[in-house]
UniProtKB/TrEMBL annotation:
A Gene Ontology biological process term: negative regulation of DNA-templated transcription
Domain of life: Bacteria
GO molecular function ontology, one term from the record: DNA-binding transcription factor activity
Pfam family, one: GntR
Domain HTH gntR-type: 20-88
Upper taxonomic lineage: Bacteria, Pseudomonadati, Pseudomonadota, Gammaproteobacteria, Chromatiales
Protein's name according to its UniProt entry: GntR family transcriptional regulator
Gene3D superfamilies: Chorismate lyase-like, Winged helix-like DNA-binding domain superfamily/Winged helix DNA-binding domain
Coiled coil: none
Record keywords, A-Z: DNA-binding, Transcription, Transcription regulation
InterPro entries: Bact_HTH_transcr_reg, Chorismate_lyase_/UTRA_dom_sf, Tscrpt_reg_HTH_GntR, UTRA, WH-like_DNA-bd_sf, WH_DNA-bd_sf
Length: 254
């Protein structure tokens, strides 16, 4: 174990009397360092032998800590080479209407946004149809890059009517989910959303913001969210890095 690795773990000893087993404490230490970026994607974790020496534990304990991280999808192991940090991959359940932060934070991921711009624009035919306004009616466009464990994962371009959008422009959109603001602050209970998903390739702007090459595969989603009384309130174009996001749903034969 090198001094650098030792400092990354911040090893201060394990609690011998604790409801959390030793392997769980080691796992939590490693997990924290993965999520805060101390161990970036594809970096190598300390070996079982190094963990044994650092924490004075058995090989079984060290191995179980690594295995639990594998089960969480945070690391992968290459036989004979060691364990490495996986690139973050967000998995969201399509059967639930959730904002990105809501869905990812509940799984223990760190999320935040970088606000690219918020401005008044004339509604295109597509936006006007979605929000049920006339073409060229002024609407508010909000662009953000979303981050998962400090890595860019999506570009979100959202449209709102002026009465809602102007209020949102004064909010902290880098740390708060718009869905949470709409429901908790503005008393707009959300009801349902229409979603369309297709494959696309990143143009120059999308590639620059998402730190990928132009032409890289991305997942493009259109989402129109309605309040419980049927008002269209949030129309979005969402662009996800192709290998970093998954949607899951269960369908039943009736």
């Amino acid at each position: 174990m090198t001094k650098q690795e030792d400092s990354k773990l911040g090893a201060s000893g394990l609690k011998l009397v604790s409801p959390v087993p030793l392997y769980g404490q080691i796992k939590d230490m490693l997990r924290k360092k993965i999520l805060d970026g101390s161990y970036p994607p594809h970096s190598k974790l300390p070996s079982e032998s190094e963990l044994m020496a650092l924490f004075d534990v058995s090989r079984i304990t060290a191995r179980q800590a690594i295995r639990d991280l594998q089960k969480e999808g945070l690391v992968f192991t290459i036989q004979g080479k060691g364990s490495f940090v996986t690139k973050p991959k967000a998995v969201q359940d399509l059967t639930r209407l959730e904002g990105f932060g809501e869905a990812m934070n509940s799984k223990g991921y760190e999320t935040y946004s970088r606000l690219i711009g918020a401005r008044e624009v004339p509604a295109s035919s597509e936006v006007a149809h979605a929000l049920k306004v006339s073409r060229d009616t002024p609407v508010i466009e909000i662009e953000r890059v979303r981050y998962l464990n400090r890595s860019p994962i999506s570009l979100d371009v959202s449209y709102f009517t002026l009465d809602v959008g102007r209020r949102l422009m004064d909010e902290d959109l880098e740390t708060r989910d718009i869905f949470v603001i709409l429901e908790n602050d503005y008393a707009f209970p959300l009801g349902a959303a229409d979603i369309v998903i297709n494959a696309a390739v990143a143009d120059e702007k999308e590639a620059e913001l998402l730190a990928v090459e132009a032409g890289a595969p991305i997942l493009r989603m259109e989402r129109l969210t309605f309040t419980q009384d049927g008002r269209p309130i949030d129309y979005e174009h969402l662009y996800y890095i192709g290998d970093a996001y998954q949607y899951r749903l269960r369908v039943e034969r009736r």
